[in-house]
Amino acid sequence: MDPLEGRVSRTAVWTGTGIEIRDVPIPALGHRELLVRVDLATVCGSDLHTLSGRRSGPVPSVLGHEGVGQIVAAGPHAVAAVGERIVWSVTCACHDCDRCRAGRTAKCRSVTKVGHEPFTGPWPLSGTYSRYIVLPAGATIVPVPDALPDVVAAPASCATATAAAAIGVAGDLAGRRVVVCGAGMLGIAAVAMCAEAGADVSIVDVAPERAARAERFGAVADDSGPVDVALDFSGSAEAIASLVPRLDVGGHLVLAGSVAPGPAVAVDPEAIVRGWLTISGVHNYEPAHLHAAVAFLTRTVAVYPWDELVEDPVPLEALEQVARPGPALRAAVRP
Ligand SMILES: [Zn+2]
Ligand SMILES: [Zn+2]
Description:
Layout: E1 8-14, E2 19-25, E3 34-42, H1 45-51, E4 66-74, E5 85-92, H2 98-101, E6 112-113, E7 132-135, E8 139-143, H3 150-153, H4 159-170, E9 177-181, H5 185-196, E10 200-204, H6 208-214, E11 227-232, H7 237-243, E12 247-255, H8 269-274, E13 278-281, H9 287-300, H10 319-322, E14 332-333
Parallel strand pairs: 9-10, 9-11, 11-12, 12-13
Antiparallel strand pairs: 1-2, 3-4, 3-7, 3-14, 4-5, 5-6, 5-8
The structure holds zinc ion (2 copies).
């Protein structure tokens, strides 16, 4: 008999107009699937866009793509062991199509995404706002050391790993001048990573108190001067337009924040040519970036006040009330 038969997961279902708490049957696990008990989920800004109607997605669905938890059951030939404490990737890939083979598994031809799938489809328990989540074979899973508290580990699977991907595009940062735009969770993670890499890193944000907080994570005050690398996590067209003229010869602008429709930005092609400038886009991340994110947080858990960026967790029933930005950068849910 299937040991999961008859068991249910207490799960927050997004209906398009609100959140409904339901007891959802836990399915029998397929080949290499994992059942994970979610111990903590953090609320990413893109979910706030969904709840406020700025980002469209399947309805109904289980949202939430940042989380940490423990494997409680594994399908046949699963690669991980029951009992392991893990974080997992947002994107789940086939690892076999042309894009996967080219090293862009985040853009797999048959990609599925944690917290982005229809509740009525083949993967109902896909989000982290749920007591249990099912992880498909194509998910990347990374063990979490005991030294990393839940509140520090959970954002790794979106914010920290995406910051690692954006920095990976910019290349070696030692001794280079970097400006980070947007002092949210991704921007703060990027600042700390740049500082660790030996960069001279500053941060800009429309809210001065948010930018000031980044100084506790290794940023210096911004002087609006020339930079070698600009990393945008704000997604603001105005902010992006202001970064291009700051790039010195050979400079690189990496865009990672523009994940909702917005106005176009004019660029001067002559400035790109004469300045040997590069503009890159980064969306989600590769498996190596999630491993790098967990390793980075583990190295710096005692160096930076990561736990202060996440609010005290609330139960699943209170998810709708926390779906607004508070004084910390991330609300948290303990399902
Ligand atoms: Zn996210
Ligand atoms: Zn693929």
